[in-house]
Amino acid sequence: MKIVDAKSRRVGITRAMRLASFIVHLALVMVATGRTGPAKLMIDVDFFDTLGGVNYCSSNWIERFFEGCPGHGVKRVTWRCNGQAANFPSRTNYRWTEPDMIKSAADERRYDGAFAAKVGVGPQKAGSFGGIMQRIEVKGEHEFAFRGMVGSDAIPSGAFLAAIDAESGRTLARSGESRSYGLRRLDLRFKASKPFYVGVFSSGAEDTHVFVADNLSLKRLDEPKKELLANGEMEDVDSFMEPSRWLQRNVRFVVLNGDATAIPEAERRKRFPSISTFDMIHHPERPVLTRALKAEDEGDSLELAGKAAKRHGVELYAWLDPLDDGTRCLPPVKTASSRFLENHPEFRCTDANGRPRWGALCFACPEVRAYKTDMVREVIAYEGVSGVVLKVHYQHNILWGLDSFMHHDCLYHPAIIERYHARWGRPADGRYGMFRLRTLHGEAVMEWLRELRPVLAAAGKRLCMFQAPRPYLGGSDVGGWYLPPEKIVSEGLCDDMLIEPRWTDGDHLAHFAGADGISVKRLIRACRAAGVGVGFDLYYTAISKNFRETRGEELFRQLVGLAKEDVDYIGIYEENHFRKFLGDVDRAAAEIAKMPADAKTPDYSDLDDGPRSANVITPAVCREVALYDCSGVKTLADELVVESLVNEPRWSAYPCAPSTNSHLLVTFAQSLELSEVRLFSGHLRWKNSCAAGDFMLSGLEGGKWTRLASVSDANTLKGRNQSAPNVCRFPKRRLDAIRFDFTRGVDGSPTVMLRGVAGR
Question: What mean pLDDT is reported for the chain?
Answer without folding.
Answer: 81
